[in-house]
């Protein structure tokens, strides 16, 4: 699950395929961009330092500084010319083209969930409301230069047949340290099944945990 928020306007073969792209990522994460390896070269100005990447390198680059960064996208003319000869003009137009630049917003912290530590206050039983139940998970909060940050409300979403269970916790202030996150649950499930619990970070990227649900 991608995590991140991106906004784009798809116009099709008769115009620019993207007019704006924004990515919101956690500290230390790469950009979740999907692009053919040979299509572009990229240029990043990160706090006065200029970095140049090919398409493969930009996919693995991890941002170690928080802030808003502009990345220039420079088409590789050889790739598009070769693709045109191999596939024809129509196929060349159908490729995903990036704009001249896009922005990356890097948070000042990252959350690493430890799925081995997931616990529930009460066993989840099919048909029972979860209004008095809680889920807990250990997590490591990593902040920029160990600074204190406000971690916003975090949520749990679920996927599975007949499930409407969700959860949330309270915002808190943290620097770099291990902590236990506690979520108040709500909703119920109507059928006995496996349920996927998605622990969402601040950008709605999911770390998923599967659990068998008991019959009533």
Give your account of this protein's structure.
It is elongated and about 65 Å long. With 216 residues, it is mostly beta strands. Helix content is 11%, strand content 43%. The protein has helices spanning 55-60, 77-93, and strands spanning 22-25, 40-46, 49-54, 67-75, 101-106, 109-120, 134-143, 149-151, 155-159, 166-168, 172-174, 177-186, 194-200, 206-212. The strands form three sheets. It has a seven-stranded antiparallel sheet, with no helix packed on it. A five-stranded mixed sheet has the order 1-5-4-2-3.
Could you spell the SSE succession in H and E letters? EEEHEHEEEEEEEEEE
The counted number of beta strands is: 14
Biggest β-sheet: strands ordered side by side in the sheet: 6-7-12-10-9-13-14
Ends distance: 32 Å
Stretches where pLDDT falls below 50 for ≥5 residues?
A: 1-19, 89-93
Shape field:
elongated
> In angstroms, what is the radius of gyration?
22 Å
Mean pLDDT value? 85
Largest sheet: 7 strands, antiparallel
Helix- and strand-based class?
Answer: mainly beta
Count helical runs. Answer: 2
The amount of helix comes to 10-25%
Which strand-content bin applies to the residues? 35-45%
Summarize, please.
The chain is mostly beta strands. The protein has helices at residues 55-60, 77-93; strands at 22-25, 40-46, 49-54, 67-75, 101-106, 109-120, 134-143, 149-151, 155-159, 166-168, 172-174, 177-186, 194-200, 206-212. The longest helix has 17 residues, at 77-93.
